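Handout for the seminar on molecular recognition.
Each group receives one record of this type.
Step one: identify the two inputs.
Step two: read the structure output and locate the region that could contact iron/sulfur cluster.
Step three: write two sentences on what you found, then compare them with the reference statements printed after the record.
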Amino acid sequence: MKKKGYMEFVCKRFCSFYKPGSEALACAGYLFFENAFALEAIKDMVERIDITEANPTLLYDSVLRAVCRRCDFLADGCDFREGIPSPPCGGYILLESLIREGILTEDELNRILEETHF
Ligand code: SF4
């Protein structure tokens, strides 16, 4: 079950698949943020992102694969990850934006993945 505050900042804000009442569905993009950061830290990072620049590119595929490969939606079919024109989840968009804007480095992401055993 998703936590309300995290859902507001990761899903409602960034995910085009978000629907009210979908609290039971959590992709790995969402779970990464819930596991890795306090809500206040996410709020702080989100405020520093230019959302209009969010344009997922798979530019950091080698790193983001580490998140997506743990995702239940990958098994069921995530069109974005399969190369079918479709947006990724909000967690993916947020994560890629943080890396692109230098708020989170790929080394920091790898360290978080190791430390949280995500
Ligand atoms: S982009 Fe797709 S596979 Fe990757 S975390 Fe999001 S929903 Fe899951």
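Reference statements: The pocket of iron/sulfur cluster is lined by residues 27-29, 67-68, 71, 73-74, 78, 80-81, 88-89, 91-92 (CB under 6 Å). The chain has a mean pLDDT of 87.
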